[in-house]
TrEMBL record:
Gene Ontology molecular function, alphabetical: orotidine-5'-phosphate decarboxylase activity
Any Pfam family hit: OMPdecase
Record InterPro entries: Aldolase_TIM, OMPdecase, OMPdecase_AS, OMPdecase_bac, OMPdeCOase_dom, RibuloseP-bd_barrel
Keywords on record: Decarboxylase, Lyase, Pyrimidine biosynthesis
Domain spans labelled Orotidine 5'-phosphate decarboxylase: 12-240
Annotated active site: 70
Main EC class the enzyme belongs to: lyase
Catalytic activity, reaction form: orotidine 5'-phosphate + H(+) = UMP + CO2
Species of provenance: Lapidilactobacillus achengensis
Binding-site residues for substrate, renumbered to this chain: 18, 41, 68-77, 131, 193, 204, 224-225
Classification via SUPFAM superfamilies: Ribulose-phoshate binding barrel (SSF51366)
Assigned protein family: Belongs to the OMP decarboxylase family. Type 1 subfamily.
Record protein name field: Orotidine 5'-phosphate decarboxylase
Lineage, highest ranks first: Bacteria, Bacillati, Bacillota, Bacilli, Lactobacillales
Pathway membership, UniProt: Pyrimidine metabolism; UMP biosynthesis via de novo pathway; UMP from orotate: step 2/2
């Protein structure tokens, strides 16, 4: 499989800013040098506590933002919400693929209609199966009579038909999806951990290390607690970035050689 990684594009893991307030978020970001332009994710906790102003402030500080609100409602409601989101200037936003094709098409229309002329339309992603869901849970609780890979690839095909830019999936499914949807369709992967087997009470079920995620062809890594709860978040961020870059670089070299 040909990796999608462009060596001239500095790969930045997306940091999930899962904090309870604007104050806690800005305190965390102060640990990074002022000229470090990060790719950050604002999820429900932060957005519901701080509101759209936190998104505006992060963009003003030079960061790129993935607004991860995982919309899932009737098409009309989602379209109207996406018109508002389009005005915030985020790079990525998302919906649940389980909301269906009509809802995904409506979300895209809302984003396109709500984006000011000359501004880039935010990339729309679809959640496939949450990385906290195991195959066994999916089958018994969602009554899905299929494998997890079948469900994830079904949702990815549906999202691609609705003209979305990509999906959120676990890195474990990234390589399979690249074969099915082509390398340009984004595979944004949370559930990244520095060790392959997570112990304890972590809620993530489908995890991967940054190196393994690169080998599987993840387009973007999403990392929360391994960075935000680290004693030294800046050095863990750079460690993950370096692991990912090095593994991706190795893949690019291999693919260039095999293309010669
Ligand atoms: O399937 C999904 C979709 C979204 N997420 C989000 O990513 C981060 C992961 O945080 P960690 O602390 O690294 O587990 C979090 O904001 C989730 O809401 C996901 O984990 N899985």
């Amino acid at each position: 499989m040909k990796p999608t990684i462009d060596p001239s594009d500095p790969k930045r893991p997306i940091i999930a800013l899962d904090f309870p307030s604007k104050t806690a978020t800005l305190r965390f970001l102060k640990k990074f040098p002022q000229d470090e332009h990060l790719f950050v994710k604002v999820g429900m906790e932060l957005y519901y506590s701080a509101g759209p102003v936190i998104v505006e402030q992060l963009i003003e500080q030079g960061h790129d933002v993935f607004l991860d609100l995982k919309l899932h409602d009737i098409p009309h409601t989602v379209e109207r919400a996406m018109r508002v989101i389009a005005g915030l200037g985020v790079r990525y936003t998302d919906v649940h693929a389980a909301g269906g094709s009509d809802m995904m098409l409506a979300a895209r229309t809302g984003l396109e209609d709500g984006t000011a002329a000359g501004q880039p339309v935010p990339k729309l992603l679809a959640i496939t199966q949450l990385t906290s869901t195991s195959e066994q849970q999916m089958q018994s609780e969602q009554l899905v009579n299929a494998t997890l890979n079948t469900s994830v690839s079904h949702y990815a095909r549906l999202a691609q038909k609705a003209w979305l830019a990509g999906v959120v999936c676990s890195a474990q499914e990234a390589s399979m999806l690249a074969q099915i949807t082509g390398p340009e369709f984004l595979r944004v992967t949370p559930g990244i951990r520095l060790v392959a087997h997570q112990a304890g009470s972590d809620d993530q079920k489908r995890i991967m290390t940054p190196e393994a995620a690169a080998a599987q062809g993840s387009s973007q890594l999403v990392v929360g607690r391994p960075i935000t709860e680290a004693a030294d978040p800046v050095s863990v961020y750079h460690q993950i970035k370096q692991l990912w870059e090095e593994a991706s670089h190795g893949l690019n070299k291999t693919s260039k050689k095999s293309n010669q």
